[in-house]
Amino acid sequence: MTEHATGTARGIAPSLSLRNLSKSFGGARALNGVSLTIRPGEVHGLLGQNGSGKSTLIKILAGFHAPDPGAEMDLHGGPVPLPMPPGEARRRGVAFVHQHLGLVPSLTVLENLRVGDFATKRSWAINWRKEAERARQVFAHFDLDIDPGARVGDLAPVQKALLAIVRAFEDLKEAETAKSGILILDEPTPFLPRTGVQQLFSLVRKIVAEGSSVIFVSHDVDEIMEITDRATVLRDGVLVGTLTTKEATPEQFVELIVGRRVQMFQTSHKDFSERPVRARISDLSGGSVEMASFAVREGEVLGLTGLIGSGFDDVPYLLYGADTAKTGTIGIGGGSFALEHMVPPAALRLGLALIPADRLACAGVGSLSIADNMSLPVLDDFRRWGMLDWPRIKCRVRELGSAYEVRPNNTELTLGSLSGGNQQKVILAKWLQTAPKLLLLDEPTQGVDVGARQQLFAALEQAALTGTSVICASTDYEQLSQICDRVLIFARGRIIHELAGEDVTKDNIAEVCLRGTDPVEKTGETTP
Amino acid sequence: MSNDTDAMPGREQLVASDGQSHPEKRQINWVRLAEAYALPGALLLIGAVFGYLRPEAFLSWANISTMLGSQAVLVVLTLALIIPLTAGDFDLSVASVLTLSAMLLAVLNARMGVPIGWAVLCCFAMAVIVGLVNAGFILYFRIPSLIVTLGTGTFVNGIVLWISSSMTISGIDPVLINYVIVTRVLGVPIVFYYALAICFAVWYVFEYTSMGRRLIFVGRGREVARLSGIKVDAVRLVCLVVASILSAAAGIFYAGTIGAADPLSGQTFLLPAFAAAFLGATAISPGRFNAWGSLVAVYFLVTGITGLTILGIQTFVQNLFYGAALVCAVALSQLVRKRETQEFT
User: Fold this and answer.
1) CB-side exposure of A204: number of CA atoms within 13 Å?
2) What are the tens digits of pLDDT across the range A369-419?
3) What is this structure's pTM?
4) Min Cα separation A361/chain B (Å)
5) B1, B2, B4, B12: best mutation site toward chain A, by most A Cβ within 10 Å?
6) ipTM score here?
7) From the CA of A181, how many Å to the nearest CA of chain B?
8) Is residue A528 part of a domain?
9) What CATH number is given to the structural domain containing A209?
10) Torsions phi, psi of A189, nearest 5?
11) Do residues A123 and A271 share a domain?
């Protein structure tokens, strides 16, 4: 409310003004009297845990949900009828980029860029040469090195995200309001490497410099601190605060998001040099990795990191046999195994387990229940008289669900209906119940909110205490510093540095990562 | 994309409410129950309607037992079909294997005088070969199952026409006929109980063995299954071979039911089997291909058609009915699965 007042007091017509926005689904209130003002030319952050109402808010802006009666909305000073008719958002200069970017991988950059025109314009013929020239100008304008003729599937993830944003921005120009549109970026960064995030931010800055506003939805407080002018935090459907970023601290944001002071999880960085070696990996090559050798000790949490393309994130998949290694051996449990012949069943027999980054494509099946997903690796333990003992399986799954704080802990819910954090708890429980000797993780907390993150870390530490060794590949330096006893930093497929003990800090990791290789040019990444 | 649950309004709230979803939970259970038993209910309903319209013809024990017995072949074929469907593979060659199995039996037994037992064994051997060929092309060359089985099915049809010289062959050993249709238990031909037994076996394997659970994961998430240590290709191969073997069994029952084999009529089972498989996936365990659902679906379709025939409606109605049932069943099962696209390869 006060934001609205200040916005008008300064005499600037706000780009977007929402008053008293509520939305109920059945009995549950997803949004409760939210009032929000977006100024022209500002980057406005939108933060909140999963279920805080931010996606509902975005969906109302998109016209996907109708808000409860009593809400008002102004766009560029003019009132908008609610619920918004379809297509109205686009006409009034509001464009969206969702996490699933909405690009067609098998088509070219140019075709993807113009797909909106194909859908709406009535012109019969397409002058491809002119279109390509226009696209080149647009990319040049934003300093992007993207070839309009390239297939989108061949682009690096960063380039795809940039393309989607440029496309949305181009759509804004077509709108009636021309220069001052609103671009809504709905969590565009979780699947991007840090360097990609920087490129995305510089694009966002150029867009607001031209007079448009950007609403930036994110989980990541650091990103919000870096890119936004102001940021609004939602919790349980209520707007709990709008802070001016310059004057706020990350701790203030975290506190608003979770509603209480979270004890940031911090492992004690134990010294493992006296403990027996659990697994010794020698001369591993494959993917982007070249001749990496390292060992992990019993109960140790070993982090792998580096810039994207440095190969650190291939290591878990190569060790597990999910991807085929060119060379290398793993010595574990007294034996030695050639990694070029590794396949997942063999890896499981050796006591390895893998939790891939792509949760619903590789780690669990969204359309099957929590019970189905969690019980998969241990089904053979639940046979009685030649048949699966479902009551006992359900009982085990419920126990694990409450131990790992899965919410809601209902064994019959499908995995896909849970929030990202709860999905990951289910996946973690699925594998930790097998008491693996070596747990391999890739980006374990992608798309996981702050609270669930701490619970996952605690579960990992508990597993490490009972003797499981953990290898965690991640580009989240803060996360690595929180959970790892030792961190290996990769560059160009090789291990260039090792941090252990008290040296494992976010700043140290960042420094070595950036110092170890040439600074990455703007679009210097090659396609994977 | 298919997992974009955010697109479902209301889901988020269910998640957010941290266990406070009890009022909704009870409601969902009612909806689930209604969903699961809608098809059996509909079966009883149309049975009652036809029974009311033509009590003497439709509700006669003779009619009912004939329906139960004669459609057991379709039940077995549908069960054959849902096994690869669950693993995410189409098998369009099942009806061809059924036809070839019946024809091979007739040629070997009636024409060449091979004892019936050996002839049956030959049919199963043939089914294993067809299954392996299907699996070989699908898994080794990574060709979509739809294409491979369309081809092998047509190829098998060619073999049928070749070995039968496009003629109906009768004179199959009465022992088989005796073991299939003549023997009756409680007035119903024994072949119905064979179908029930296979139905029970498929249900048991799907629900109560770890093999069955792995099968579902292979169908729903190949990569998840692979990374969970499941030998995905082996599972798919076994499914295709088992589907072929069950189709051959259906063929043997078919030959036993009519005492002869003709080169064309077996092919007409393909569409009803698909219709029943997808319709069955909306019942009993909605959202999954399941054995009891398939059984109910077969008899739902058959009751509809028998009833309409008794009412004196012409035979082309059969095509209208099965064709419409297939598309409606798939549409229904999409509704049950919350419009998640199903991926078959």
Assistant:
1) 29
2) 899 999 999 888 888 877 888 889 999 999 999 888 887 888 888 888 888
3) 0.73
4) 7
5) B12
6) 0.79
7) 25
8) no
9) 3.40.50.300
10) -100, -20
11) no
